[in-house]
Amino acid sequence: MSEYGASDLLGELATLATALAETVAPSALLDGTRSVTAVALMYFAAAACSVAVVDDDAEELIYVAASGAGADSVADVRLPIGRGIAGWVAQSGQPIAVSDLSGDTRFARDIAESTSYVPTALLVVPIEADDRLLGVLSVLDRDETRPGAAGDLQAAAQFADLAAAAIQATTAFADAGRVLLQALAEAAGSDAPLSAVLAAVPRTTHREHELHEFAAVLAEFYRSGANERGLGLRLLRDVLAFVNRDGGGRTSTNR
């Protein structure tokens, strides 16, 4: 490919993979956080429930899912971290329940008004995984008189754990193509042993470390013969079939 080589093409594909991740991601992943808000809405007998994720680069919360009043207006709303009740929770990492927002100076009324629903009470908990803040879960105007309402902060934390799993799954899918293609791009542009090339590619998370190792295996199969690639594909399919069949009995060791 003359000056525009395989590594350049793979580099562009890595960027494209990230941009298209939301479009091609399985619907179960995209609907994960929305399912959490829908169930939480019923559990808390609330007017609305939403999930916002952290945009570290912009230092903002981005609302990605909502159910109930004003849900259609919440999508993609951005809130600076530190602003509003949700922003305060994102900044402090502390859950909070406010029964009367009219006297709370932290409440971002203008943001609420932009969604066509202004709550009078709010419960917000952080969404965390591996000691890292992923976002916040907000419950608006829950029924505080129902049985068990005294334990709502603890219950909301459980819903936040479910949201964290959905966010991590979506993020892993979005990152997978980018990380794998970047690693393969480095390998395509170098004559060094593949293991040395991949070891030199920066890895910022444990997940990316695992994806780089996976990329190394894929690249080795790519360089091997057709019979070896076919065998590897069959083995991978067998492993996936076993994992999916045994899925109900697995527990996470990463939390």
Q: Mean pLDDT, as a whole number?
A: 77
Tally of separate helices: 10
- Secondary structure class reads alpha+beta
Query: Over the alpha carbons, how many angstroms does the gyration radius reach?
Result: 22 Å
State the end-to-end CA separation.
45 Å
Uncertain residue segments: 248-255
Largest sheet: 6 strands, antiparallel
Q: Which strand order do you get reading across the main beta sheet?
A: 3-2-1-6-5-4
What percentage of amino acids are in beta strands?
15-25%
Order of helices and strands: HHHEEHEHEHEEHHHH
Q: How many strands appear in the DSSP assignment?
A: 6
* Helix content percent band: 40-55%
Global shape: elongated
Question: Can you offer a commentary on this structure?
Answer:
- This protein has helices at residues 6-24, 27-30, 32-43, 71-74, 84-92, 109-114, 152-188, 194-200, 206-223, 226-245; strands spanning 48-55, 60-68, 78-80, 96-98, 122-129, 132-140.
- Strand 5 (122-129) and strand 6 (132-140) form a beta hairpin.
- Helix content is 53%, strand content 16%.
- The longest helix is centred in the middle third of the chain and has 37 residues, at 152-188.
- The chain has a 6-stranded antiparallel β-sheet with strand order 3-2-1-6-5-4, sandwiched between helices.
- Helix 1 (6-24) packs antiparallel against helix 7 (152-188), helix 7 (152-188) runs parallel beside helix 9 (206-223) and helix 8 (194-200) packs antiparallel against helix 9.
- It is an alpha+beta fold and 255 residues long.
